[in-house]
């Protein structure tokens, strides 16, 4: 097992699908259709490959926690529904992996909270992501009763944080200082 090789693979793949020139939702409708018809959405293909390779790591997954949490989060925040549905379950697998090794998933939890703040501040994330995140992780956790309550608490924490981060981002351009201050206090 070559850790550096796998690490390079994951970082390169995430860098590829998050590059600006592949963010189809930022293009005009005509350009979007033209690219979609000619090439399809390459982000989805690479995202599925990342997912498949993640599950092939076996016992070596623990080597990538928490280091790959940020890049995987960045990938899951791309506003493409099928990509999100395919890759959000990686988070549950990371939690389960860390839980099986240490009896908790604090490293994962701390990293995702830290990175989520940065990503939402950068303009990523939306209400739909929050709903998918909650439903997918809750559904995954139902199959593992021993960790279900911990995952449920974690999902609730992240959902509240994401709500507050999205509110904060929305009011940053608001003229009303009270609204901005209220969101800041809630976030803190």
UniProtKB/TrEMBL annotation:
InterPro entries: DOCK (IPR026791), TPR_DOCK (IPR056372). It holds the Pfam family TPR_DOCK. Residues 1-136 form the Dedicator of cytokinesis TPR repeats region domain. GO terms for biological process: cell migration; myoblast fusion; small GTPase-mediated signal transduction. Signal peptide: none annotated. One of its GO terms (cellular component) is cytoplasm. One of its GO terms (molecular function) is small GTPase binding. PANTHER family: DEDICATOR OF CYTOKINESIS, DEDICATOR OF CYTOKINESIS PROTEIN 2. This is DOCK2 protein. It comes from Mohoua ochrocephala. The gene is Dock2_1.
